[in-house]
Amino acid sequence: MSVKIALLGFGTVASGVPFLLKENHEKITQAAQDEIEIAKVLVRDDAEKEKLQAAGHNYNFVTNVDEIIEDKDIAIVVELMGRIEPAKTFITRALEAGKHVVSANKDLLAVHGSELLEIAQKHKVALYYEAAVAGGIPILRTLVNSLASDKVTKVLGVVNGTSNFMMTKMVEEGWTYEDALAEAQRLGYAESDPTNDVEGIDAAYKMVILSQFAFGMNIQFDQVGHKGISQITPQDVSVAQSLGYVIKLVGSIVETESGIAAEVTPTFLPKQHPLAGVNDVMNAVYVESIGIGESMYYGPGAGQKPTATSVVADLVRIVRRLKEGTIGKAFNEYSRPLKLAKPEDVKNNYYFSIKAPDATGQILRLSEIFNAEGASFKQILQEDSDGQFASVVIITHQVNQTQFKNLVEKLDSEANFELLNTFKVLGE
To answer: What are the pLDDT digits (tens) for 100-159?
Structure first.
């Protein structure tokens, strides 16, 4: 007897599942203590079914999900369709039918994960989703198992390969945002509508999931501030390099005395920081904890084989638990009431790029504005001047979120100054 599974979708990642089951059959079978058999594959329509069959794929393709949901021999459903619907409906029906589910759908799990986990718990079935964050990096299971005895205090992640590829081109080769986006789209890294990747939305979804596993708190997507890379200029990149920093789109979750704060924003990373060397489409999650101290988990964040590896690892775990009679335990059992940090407890260094009149007294005026909010300069540079206006770059010592918000509002209201850009700086 084998454990029968069904695939919902047969795109890039899904087609990697049978590859791994075949190529790594001996190890997978030993780890699972049973054979894993693909019984059915859901595809969009008959045209896709015929196309896949013509390409030599000899699976039992079906076009109606009912053929999977109502098949009592299928024990596990693997959802690799993406998007929220119809994936949410299909997963819900599978769980309610007593089937275990593996998914890589970070959008769905970030928005509706709590609801789906409740359904899974009610029906005593498993819902696993290692591949939903950072593709081939086993970060969720590392947090659940290897760091079970440790207290995580901060998580930083470069978790979107598209934006990271673009930032690598902008930093290392001096490309503009527009040129980097065009190349990412040409290579297939970026969609025709790249909004989710370049505006930090995709990374914010992943921060939602990481908050559950690292801190036991179920933060909502709209509680994760996100700002993307579309406003980064070559001047910002150049200034960062001259001051010893690299710009990356970084997701962060930090626990303060009052609670956790999560956001995704372009960040100046010191060149010696481990995340600064994460380039192209690679991902990494950097963890600070009271036991281990600092650790980083690095690897491909997407792609057929890396993501399928995480999916199959979830399959192995479920099959093994079926054999042991321990199935139904939650993927992540660490849970605490959500407490959001007070703005005054969330402190960072910040970069301000300001266009100012090239005249005596303007730096003094900027000092007065910052001092009034209790903010002091860590670094200040006056860049190129055209004789009328000059670019002024300021990096502050640590200020809290309220101070930062007030500074932005005051600079925006000053007729003499134009606030060009603000970014977080990883510093003291």
So the answer is: 999 999 999 999 999 999 999 999 999 999 999 988 899 999 999 999 999 999 999 999
The burial class, CB within 10 Å (0-12 / 13-18 / 19+), for 96 is middle
Q: 72: which 2 tokens?
A: 């009592």
Residue 385 is predicted with a pLDDT of 67
Instruction: Count CA atoms closer than 13 A to 85's CA, side-chain side.
Output: 1
Is the previous residue joined to 86 through a cis bond, with omega within 30 degrees of 0?
Answer: yes
DSSP state of 199: T
Distance (Å, rounded) from C-alpha 36 to C-alpha 248? 40
Q: Which residue has the tokens 């899974």?
A: 120
Active site amino acids: 206
**pLDDT tens digits, residue range 391-403?**
899 999 999 999 9
Q: First-to-last CA distance in the chain? A: 58
Token pair belonging to 357: 């009149």
What does the alpha-carbon distance between residue 25 and residue 390 come to, in Å, rounded to a whole number? 64
CA 276 to chain centre: 17
Q: Which two tokens stand for residue 392?
A: 């002024």
The answer to whether the Cα torsion of 182, 185, 187, 190 is positive or negative is: positive
Name, in order, each residue with C-beta under 8 angstroms of 370's C-beta and a sequence gap of 6 or more. Answer: 376, 377, 394, 396, 407
Model pTM score: 0.93
Mean pLDDT, range 190-206, rounded to an integer: 95
Dihedral angle sign, alpha carbons of residues 60, 62, 65, 67: negative
